[in-house]
Amino acid sequence: MKLTHPLLATTLALTLAACGQPSAVAPDAAAPTAPVAGTPTGTDSYLVGFRQPLSAQNLGGQELAAQAAVQAQAITAAGGVISSQWADISAAAVRLSPAALTKLRANPSVEYIEQEAVHRAQGRPSGTSDARPASALAAQGSTLSAQRLGAQALYAPSGEFTWGDNALRVPALRAAGYTGASTTRVAVCVLDTGIDGNHPEFQRKLTGFKNFVTTETNRNDPYALNDVDGHGTHVAGTVFAQYGAGTGTTGLQSGMDAAGVGGVATGANLFVGRVLGDTGSGSSSGIINGVNWCVAQLKSQGGTQDRVVVSMSLGGGSKSQTEQRAYTAAYNKGALIIAATGNDGAAVSYPAAYTQVAGVAAVDSNLAKADFSNFGTQVDLSGPGVAVLSPVPLGQGTAASASGGGVTFADVQAADKTGRGSFTGTVVAAGGTNNEFCGAGTRNAALNGNIALIARGTCSFEEKTANAVASGARGVMIYNNAAGALGISLTNTYAVPVLGIQQADGQALLGKLPTTGTVAVTSADYAYLDGTSMATPHVSAAAAVVWAAKPTLTNTGLLNLLTSTARDLGTAGRDNNFGYGLVDPLKAITGQ
User: Fold this and answer.
1) What is the reported pTM?
2) Which one, of 570, 550, 562, 529, lies nearest residue 168 by Cα?
């Protein structure tokens, strides 16, 4: 193959000399190599980066392919097995034994070798795992407190519009015709755990889908089981749930509109790349392959889309030079990449912390920072991320109801690891100080065969529930110690219904004992989730809506517009908690 760049020829010669192999036919530079079976035992996953004496922009396709072929030879000569290779960033994902690792590190053409990182979905069920004092509730992003649906919240749901829709002024956007639909084709490419394409909210309007988790079988069809975790469906719903398309009364959460919920960018084109597996985690290489697939949808890269927003509700893992190369290359090709900052209440995680990636923090319905939301200089924008209601795979969510003393309670919340089913029986006060039923191993024989009524208080929900179930309770009601709904997260899974009710209902029921009550937990098609994962699709969808309205903007110009028109929160100007503030797509488009 003829090479027109002398420096490239020199680099190839050095690589060939180091690996002691003749030249070979070059692979397709535009696609990663397929995974190779038969990896030797005792190996581990690494990312290998070769020196880049010339930028990929200065090399033609044939030259990139030739360079990649020689780099592949260096890897195989050292005893490595390639799982993915990316010609345009001179890098590869490789399985290496200790001996192969040592040999490859000695190659002068290799710039670095790093262990492959694992990233995880950054969303979780709404609720709290610990008992907090009532005075702290309003500050907790991970609680389903009164701010979620209560009148005192700055933003509340109305009809199909979620509180997040209303915070982003989606009703006004839709009234003005700003939905992401345009003669300029704008796509949101969600990289996550997959999607339930059969959910009515999506109306089978998915434009593209691809699975990049090669270790799991039968996950390649968006209209068959692929989103076992459910996170990706929820994220996609925030972007794209169609108005008037819900599942009806049987799969709804309490208080929902019968038509379901609506997304922020229903007129955009939705692509979903499955880069996180059944457990909600995925490798660097799979995620890079997903990013490259998203970027390949651009017309400039041979695809059908004029603009692409890559939405990544994932994070964690250590910094990676290969990942930085990949995001820089994707950004340079014209995509806007948006990622969750993470839920550790600590420094911004990767990929949001990389340059060329916009980091998104989470706020609650009062526009306060969610307690879990990561912070730092890499936070660019904020989005709704607490108690976000969106579709989940059909039947995968849970809905709860409860009654007692002749009263049916409102805003009942199922615990995240509750059992399903219905039980009617006698309601019994669990006992203990303030009826909190605390103390590991505490038992009450009166609960056997009945429904335990317990106050939220000084010990965890797990401790209360474990005590009640071990006492033989057939159902558990925990009532709040402050106004508003109560979400519950548990450590262990239980076979009986476990749910949270409001403080007033619990205290009133306590005064009526003994009496009969009912607890029920059924399947649902929607769920409330918390996380920067939930904030990210709000921002990604907003970006798509603005890009469709202002198609001449570059990705840099779009991000600058979004940050300059964001609603300032916290300290005046940009800060480490909110970035430039809450994304405001209507102001970005209209200036108002």
Assistant:
1) 0.88
2) 562
